[in-house]
Write a structure and sequence with these properties.
Shape: elongated
Order of helices and strands: EEHHHEEEEHEHEHEHH
Distance between the termini: 41 Å
Number of helices: 8
CATH topology of the largest domain: GTP Cyclohydrolase I, domain 2
CATH superfamily of the largest domain: GTP cyclohydrolase I, C-terminal domain/NADPH-dependent 7-cyano-7-deazaguanine reductase, N-terminal domain
Helix content: 25-40%
Mean pLDDT: 89
Strand order of the largest sheet: 7-4-5-8-9
CATH architecture of the largest domain: 2-Layer Sandwich
Largest sheet: 5 strands, mixed
Length: about 200
Amino acid sequence: MKSTRSNVKVLEPKPEECDIAPLIREILGKLGEDPTRNGLVRTPERVDRALRFLTSGYKMDPRQVVNGAFYNVKYDEMVVVKDIEFFSLCEHHMLPFFGKVHVAYLPNKRVIGLSKIPRIVDVFARRLQIQERFTQDIARTLQELMDPVGVGVICEARHLCMMMRGVEKQHSGAMTSSMLGAFRDQKETRDEFLSLVNYKTNGL
């Protein structure tokens, strides 16, 4: 394994771990299904491909994703990218959780390409996750890559492990936040971030 500066592991799969389909076929049998019936014959391969995509973040390095898209500019006001949709898998039950992420930062003599922020979100969403760590991973990565005055991240999500099983609460949601630098130290900065996240504009 190699690691980024933020101690996030970038996983290199071993050859013996590369064939998931036979394991899925075995699981289907253990569940009482017939893996050879018409509707399930190709299911193991489909699940294999789906799991590889949904966990592809292990093979992504945030630095490579950003690819040096930093720009020197005299801008010291808050930059906010909100309503970034994401889908991830809960590491406890491997069931989906999904929602929106809102990211803000205060530049320190440079800004990042706006499209790179959703890409960073995807890096961490496409791993087995818990919402709390997911939120922190995004904030810490931006802080380390950019060295801004501060970073704020808010995540709103619904968890199928709560909706489909367990407590079976269909309308519950979870919110988490990570505030670094000025966002942690200055109430007015946090308040501005929250007001911008809640602000609705026509057509947006």
